[in-house]
Queue: 4 jobs
Job 1
Amino acid sequence: MAETRSWLPSFLALGAVWGASFLFIEWSLEAFTPIGIAFLRGALGAISLLIAVALTKSALPSRLIDWCHLAVVAVLLNAAPGFLFALGQEHVTSVMAGILNATTPLMTLLVIGLLFRGEKTSANQIAGLLLGFVGVALVSGIATGLGENDLLGVILLLGATLCYGFSFPYARRFVLTMPYDNTALAAGQVLCSALVLLPFALGFGITSGPLTTPSIIGIALLGFLGTGYAYVWNYRNMKLAGSAIASSVTYITPLVAAVLGVSILGETLTWYQVLGGLIILLSAAMVQNRLIVVAHRPKKQGVRT
């Protein structure tokens, strides 16, 4: 019980912050452009992580090749998804965004199956992947009309989670093997994201209108917490509870996003979004082999005599 108490507070805090990120994006859109939101969350996140690096006296990567790999992960895990989520939420509700974010494990398996043939995929995982796309169709309301959402927004959000799907295998192969502290790696990654987005933010504009109190609060929380210090919590959870428990935060964020979207933003949560969201979470559990529905049947072998 004592071990659980050590990681549970940061685990719940991480789920709450990442689940609330979709609310923060809605607030930020009152005054900032999608590219401006992506840049600022990277810049503010980098500041908070660099402070953490200084406090822990960690060493940032020193080799050029390491920074190149971090830049690739930064584009796939931060810059591109950050822009696509903000742009997508101009067309869909925060509830929809939070639910579709849970498709990340499905996209990761899809990328691994297509590009990393060396990794085996079980029948249970394939069934989970197919079930997940049924859930996406339900959440999107394809059979009943999109309601408050439109198809472009759904496509943009799925594009963001597809970027996540590419980032995890790449990071596992080229970044997690680096001999640096995890906080330093996260700081370098988020810093690269801000630098990559800087020319685009300057070229296309950071703000879209006058600053409002919600927009300032939203971008500050999105940057310092959702993109910055949340990484420290995540790495702490992986260290204390293991990667399996740490990654299960995926199941908390849609719930938090739905509660905040309905209670604070007054968004609608339809029956098909609830059903589709549950199916997506079920499929994610199957893809991560947390739930075995289709068991592997070993081939029968003859008995030697």
Note: The chain has one domain: 14-287.
Job 2
Amino acid sequence: MKKTILAVLFSSLMMGSVAQAAPLSADQEAQVRKLVRDTLIENPEILEEAIVALQAKQGERQQAQMKETLKAEHDALFNDPTSPRIGKKDAKLVLVNFTDFNCPFCKRFDPQLMDLVKKYPDDVAVVIKYLPFKGQTSMDSAQLTMTLWQEDPKAFEALHHKFMQKQGMLSDANIKDALKATGNDKLKASDKSRDGIRTNMMLAEKLGVNGTPATLVGDELIPGAIDAQQFEAVVKEQLAKLK
């Protein structure tokens, strides 16, 4: 009974009828407070239901914001000439991976992305957005790799993989060694690569990316380095939507 009364009270509040009525007296307010308290104690599941409803509304809001951002920033996400791309130009599904050469989770996750492109060559491609969060060598390696992409796209992957395969944080010496090993020891970071990183930072902020790795798969943002099977399942689900 109390649960029904509380529901009616809440409905009245939502419809505004209570706001139009005379203000409650002190005794009436105390009675309402007691009714609410007693009902919640007797039916604590109401709180769980409210939390679930709140989370659902927040999820809907976030999804709507995501769609707006994807529409407004489509070119910056998928067609920025400073952002490296792996896979076919006409792939059905283009993932956007935010990553950092000094991020241990990125180093673990990167091979999963490469494997998916190989497994679904006609369907999946990846655009790489470097977010150099972890120090100067993150910034330097990102700028150099983006510059190489602009100057010699075919040579880009070798340098990217060289940086990703280095365990731990990159040092200045590691960067020099990687450049030499891939035949790019004269490579210098371009101004366009710096502009590209600023664009990546802007996109990350708009999408709510707070760390790396984070991967945009269709209209779903996947934070972290999730299990390979789980990630493939998400990709297959998004591919199914395109059929």
Note: The two ends are 51 Å apart (CA to CA).
Job 3
Amino acid sequence: AAEAYRTLRTNVQFSSYDKEMKVITVTSSRPGEGKSTVACNMAITFAENGNRVLLVDADLRRPTVHKKFKLPNSEGIVNVILDHSQLDQIVHRDVTPGLDIITSGAIPPNPSELLGSRKNQKLIEIFRDRYDTIILDTPPLLAVTDAQVLTTISDGTIIVAQHGVTKKDEIMQAKDLLEKVKGNILGVVLSQIPIDDNSYYYYYSYEDKKPAPRTAKRTRK
């Protein structure tokens, strides 16, 4: 797994020559395609490279980051946006070396409005000042507009698709939704590809006229 995500990290870092990739949105077309797993492992891998990294669970509908890291979720980004908590109170610091995490907090009735609020935009700017890399785990694109909203304040977006499950037209629909808000699509991560009893990740950039696979072996634990 580690080598797969190091390859992904390198691809993201060199995806743009004239724009810093600081805020990265991770999404998918539909639920269950592995976006949260990719977001979490990306965050760990960026931190291992010596960066100060913040992972934000911006999936305010079905949050899972707190479960993956076994963190409390009574307070999170929602509480700060609503002015119910101070930012420094809800940051889980150095969950792994170099990695801070902000969980979602209580599920609100109006996620899209909160994520698109001026308060959330200001929070993202604060994060930019404090961290080298900010990774936002967001809901699937074909279900709700949340990921589109966050794409507009991100430097780039990754679409995660599950091998053998996600359909090509679903990926294209997700791509079209991001392009409608002028999102910078970094590429697609195809997860859970079974090859010789191992899983691989396949990545390609939309900038490539003839996308070539960039793979790295992911060993099972």
Note: The first strand starts at residue 23 and ends at 28.
Job 4
Amino acid sequence: MDIITSLAIVGFAALIHASFQLSVSVLTLLSGHAIGSKKSHARLVRLTTSYTTGAGVMTLLLLSFVSLAFIHWFGTEVPLLVWALVCGLVFGIGIAVWLFYYRRNAKGTELWIPRAFAKFLTERSKKTQQGAEAFSLGLTSVISELIFIIPTVAIAALVLIGLPPEWQLVGIAIYTAVSLLGLLIVWSLIGSGRSLARIQKWRTDNKRFLQFSSGGALIVLGFFVYVSKIMATVLGVQ
């Protein structure tokens, strides 16, 4: 794949990452508790900024780690079998997102993540008072959603290790920035004084659309990478 196609795949994978809702949910929880405890607007902005920064740092570290692991295991020439396995993982998680991303409980629906993680994030968002705590909460929120974002990270890492070193850095920066779009939008709305209730209502009203879009986009990503990398190599057109 050429550099433009590779970076486009990385950007699309990051956009799918951004469509998942856990980090945004925790950010709105954090903001809601801060508003409820009568914190100043400046304090609220500091907490949400620290949280968003933590999520960005963990995303950058995660992508860098997975890329380094692939280079250690396979070098820069990754076997087609590995590409096929990762594409299969992307397809599988895409279908899983359609079927299992939300689950019902006594209070309605909640994101399908381990209950221990969900409880921890909820409790920590209530108790967070300092920027360092919000930063660590941002780190943890990315780890908690790993089951859904690992396909996009894996695809991006496979693509990145085939690029020249300077473009690898560009690709990592693109992925990190684009993956934070959802958080950055909510952060900017909260910072500008928009109603948190309206933000929550929009998310609730559109959660099924976002669920369908995320799952469908994963399937499209897996199919595109399969065709552009595996089929193109097998047929000798690249």
Note: The radius of gyration is 19 Å.
